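Quick check before the chapter quiz. The format below is the same one you will see on the exam, so make sure you can read both the input and the output lines.
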Amino acid sequence: MKFSIKLLLCTIMILAIALGFSGYYFVNFVFETSLNREVNQALDENSILGFAFETAALNVPAKYDVLSNSSIEQIAATLATGGHSTRRLIRLSDEQKEVLFASDGFVDGNDLLLKTNESTKTYQVIEREGSYYIQTGVTVNALDRILYLETMKDVSEVFRERALGFSVYRRVTLLMLVLGTLIMNFIASWLTKPIRLLTRATRRMATGDYDYRARQVSNDELGQLTNDFNKMANALEENINKLEAELKAREDFVAAFAHELKTPLTSIIGYADMLRSRKLNEEKSFLSANYIYTEGKRLEAMSFRLLDIIVTKRLETEFQMVPADSFFHYLRDMFGTDDRLLYQFQHEPAMVRAESNLIKTVLVNLIDNAGKASEPGSLIEINGYREEDGYRFAVRDHGVGIPYEEQAKITQAFYMVDKSRARSKNGAGLGLALCAEILLLHDSKLEIESTPGEGSLISFVLWAESMEEL
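Here is the expected output.
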């Protein structure tokens, strides 16, 4: 069952119960008020009749010391007519509560008479043949006789008004429920509109339409829910795009890896088959073996780089404060004997937060890439200097440079700007990818400045102690 229908049914049930109880209370309140008024009037009329009876008894001739039963009947008959065409319903009983006079139509029964005494006035509401009466009782003291005067007052109209009130209120309640149903149906539909819009958005997203958003139509809690849902949808779409990008990157990685394996393996298999299947002179045998060795070393380097990337991603790194001098001493020892290029080392002293071996790997890869991009005899500058936000390591070459549109891609595994040049230098496009992973562990990243034909400057920043702490 829809939420709007549940809301409508609950509201109608509450409205019906409220109208029912309020109507019952209102009609009964009016009825009780009218009935109490009639009771008071009946008691007052009974008292007036009792006084009139006592007065009439005083006018009885003095020869009677005691009021006779015949006189009582005569006075009662006069009071019953009262000089009007409408007869009163009265009944008089003697001291023993034996009936002396009763008007025609007076209801038989002594229940009220037995309850009446000299100190109390009594009444009761009775029903006879579809009519309702108020029966009252009072004592009358006339010429030393104690008599009991009872009257009956027809109050059927009060009961008919109550029945009419209930009938009218039932019709009004039914009309109110019909109108309330129509109004609440509109209100329920209006209140649940945000829920319907959210449901539609959820279904659209479930079918793969991640761009769809729910329309916010209110500023209440449901409106806030819609806003939160759209924020969640934005985050979900972003994560899905990231997953799709990662999936594509993995596919590209596998494709690139297969391609990188294919070229050296083809050469190795071809030259090995040549050595195996035919007799070659010494020079050709040496060249074939050299090709096999070179391509094998290239495969070995690629395997080590891949292993380094995988290990680095899973590595739990322990950082220490390391002097920057140690990195530059290591680099001088490693590249100082290379006479193909000119290396210039300049640095400022500092203590940097790093894992020493990993940062050495980054610097070696950067210098190695700079050498592959440079012509023999070119200058490669390796600098280290302090900045406001840390200590910067920078490697500058004056080689072929990197086009601007390629700079964001060079940290991807197997990506090479100039594939023929990289392969000729035994490159596989994994060095900068490894550097990016290592620097990510250090909360840093590669920063690239390059102009094609003029060279490149690749640098990164590590956290360092302030100069005052050195």
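If your answer matched, good. The two ends are 73 Å apart (CA to CA).
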